[in-house]
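Have a think about this chain, tokens included, and walk me through the fold.
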Amino acid sequence: MRYVSTRGNAPVLDFEGATLAGLAADGGLYVPEAWPTLSREQIADLAGLSYAETAVRVMLPFVGDSLSEDELRDLCERAYGTRFAHAAVTPLVQLDHRHWLLELFHGPTLAFKDVALQLLGLLFERFLTGRSEHVTVIGATSGDTGSAAIDALAGRTGVDIFMLHPHGRVSDVQRRQMTTVLAPNVHNIAIDGSFDDAQALVKAMFNAPDFAGRFHLSAVNSINWARLMAQVVYYFYTAVRLGAPERPVAFSVPTGNFGDVFAGYVAQRMGLPVAKLVVATNVNDILHRALSAGDYSTGTVTATDTPSMDIQVSSNFERLLHDLGGRDGAALALQMQGFETSRAMQLSGAHRDGAAALFTSARIDAGGMMGAMRWACERTGELIDPHTAIGLAAARELDIAPEVPVVTLATAHPAKFPDAVERATGHRPALPARVGDLFEREERCDRLPATFEAVTGYIAERAVARA
């Protein structure tokens, strides 16, 4: 298995190389050179398997010669063992005759990012063992990626992690899950700006030869292919339990950076019968506008009760455009350069037609979000977080064939957003006992202006340079 850049002008890498690189040298994102497929028989054979064994079978085609099957199995069994509070890792909960929740928040930081990042932390450790080089991981977070990445990498040898988050724009629980990890290799940076500013700074650092050349940079955001690969697994795990491959399944995904829903696209390309992928956005609706009207242009970020979705530039959308555009890296590079200059792009007919075959979208405002939280609480007894509520509202709003089960991805534990949940339902969710002392822990964080000079200067003082 070889990995190529979406922009067509970076070295072709194996899985290990793509994992350690994160972002491609030409500013693009790594994708497999071709999509592997699983036969109907292979998908049917996933029935009854544990989550870890399902992960091995789904991910094995992607790792190539970088890991043996036994090595991959060992990593999966370690990643999906005791760090998850539910034996199923990602259990399904039935809401009514056709709607389901896929609970992705049973990991150590109570969010779906744990499912991928617990494995990614082990992959970094495995690939760095025996090497003399030191890796500097740089990431941007709108809330959940930061805490999950920090938990996965804290204390690991050969790695430092610098995580940028927008000051005052993440929940108290999200912030504390990052800033109370006091391992010496963890560095939290609160920037005076938005998530888009943080994400732009990360990309700029990777693309600055004078800075990137001094350090071995890598990424834990969903720009890192290994993270998306790990998220593909739960689409297979879920669909098989609802009747796949004999029965198609639809998924509604609360969407910000397009990584989680793109993992569903990969599952479909691999042969999973996905009836529809619902891209559920809040009022920061660039993806809804792109999919419904072809208008991929940025606006002003509006702060909402769903901070992980307060995004205007969705990095992983580039991977979809690459695939739907015939994998023409040179053409996409020009298109993305134009977008980065003008902050606007009109999707081609091929892009729109290709997306329409699988994707649909909905823009859910604050009223729709609160209504979904109330419905889930009053009708099913389930408390759901605001992001999940965006997905559930979209799932219930859109016209999907009645015989198709619709699974909403429950991306975070409701206790990560207690104020919003209490406003909508009258019930204040409690933190699980395993993180119940979160508000008693010491915090450590540095606040910086959202400038390239300030952030790179901070990192350069603390990171380990290349030998």
